[in-house]
Design a protein that fits this description.
It comes from Candidatus Spechtbacteria bacterium RIFCSPLOWO2_12_FULL_38_22. This protein has three helices and 29 strands. It has 334 residues and is mainly β. A ten-stranded mixed β-sheet has the order 11-10-6-8-7-27-20-23-24-25, sandwiched between helices.
């Protein structure tokens, strides 16, 4: 392991980490000297929580719930259709950032549980589908359920219509994890990382993922910052807490198959293997995704030669799509 970097600084209410020329806000409200920072395996970014497990929080994607609180501060976000050809849902992982408010928190879906387990995350949700709760009742993953609300981990905000009024915070989740006796130390082995480098040549800048409206997604590459600004339903994806537009260093489009279990729920193939597209440094790289059947198996990405992909350090969005969903990079359909 690389030796830690000691930062003799005092942190008041807010800290900023700089990656590829960008500042990412991290909520703090503590004074500490001589903090030790090392890269967290989830993102490759140095942070104080380098050896801690992430929290994987289920978030709404419904237009009425937008903008989401602290979505720009998530280290990794998984986006997936939960009703075929209709509704998406998000799972946001937080570890290097410690937001004071996260939401709106929504229900568990069984397809997300193996992904959370693969990241060694603690799964936070507001109830769940019958399929998800059946799995969670078996104790297959450390989870915090708002319907039980241990240690007051979640709360409702006045003035917001149900079911979009559910929120939590990093501190509440952390204290509840300690209260429940869950392990705090991270076991996720992580990915290989490298510092980002902006594309020198002109080229495509817009990525479009044609989820059904109003869940259609696009990203616009910013060469100056070597990041991708996110848009949803034709509007900028903003953070309710900070007012910032969501930006990410890496986007992975994961192609798979799904089917409706009934009128309300989807079943997505998240184990096995399939095609993927990796967007970073203003370029697109064809890849394959792999995840073994074991619940805690890591979600892997390999290039055409079978070697594990090396990612740019920083934030990552994983967009699951069905084969046949249109993906456009510039003017080219992928």
């Amino acid at each position: 392991m690389v030796m830690g970097v000691v930062a003799p600084v005092v942190i008041a209410s807010v800290v900023y980490f700089f990656t590829s020329g960008n500042s990412f806000e991290i909520s703090k409200n503590r004074d500490k000297d001589n903090l030790i920072y090392e890269p967290h395996p989830l993102t490759g970014q140095k942070c104080e929580n380098y050896n801690k497990r992430p929290f994987a929080v289920m978030l709404a994607a419904d237009p009425v719930a937008r903008p989401l609180a602290s979505i720009s501060m998530a280290d990794v976000v998984v986006e997936m259709p939960v009703v075929k050809d209709s509704i998406n849902r998000l799972m946001a992982l937080y570890v290097c950032s410690e937001p004071e408010e996260i939401g709106s928190v929504r229900s568990a879906r069984h397809d997300f549980i193996p992904l959370a387990a693969g990241f060694d995350a603690i799964y936070a949700h507001w109830g769940g589908s019958s399929f998800a709760l059946k799995d969670l009742d078996k104790g297959i993953i450390d989870n915090i359920d708002a319907l039980i609300n241990p240690n007051e981990a979640f709360y409702r905000k006045q003035g917001i219509p149900m079911p979009h009024d559910g929120f939590t915070s990093y501190e509440r989740l952390k204290k509840t994890t300690e209260y429940l006796g869950y392990r705090l130390e991270n076991n996720f082995e992580g990915y290989k990382y490298i510092d980002g480098q902006s594309r020198k040549e002109d080229g495509a800048t817009t990525l479009v993922i044609n989820y059904p409206y109003p869940h259609s997604v696009s990203y616009i590459y910013n060469k100056d910052t070597n990041t991708y600004l996110r848009w949803r339903g034709g509007s900028p994806e903003l953070d309710k807490l900070t007012g910032n537009q969501v930006r990410t260093n890496v986007i992975v489009v994961i192609k798979t198959t799904s089917r409706r279990l009934n009128a309300d729920y989807n079943d997505v193939d998240i184990t096995g293997s399939g095609e993927a597209l990796v967007f970073q440094n203003g370029e697109v790289v064809p890849a394959r995704w792999e995840k073994e059947e074991a619940l805690s198996a890591k979600l892997k990405f390999v290039n055409e030669g079978g070697e594990e992909i090396t990612f740019v350090r920083g934030k990552m969005w994983l967009n699951y799509i069905d084969y046949g969903t249109q993906v456009i990079w510039g003017e080219k359909k992928l």
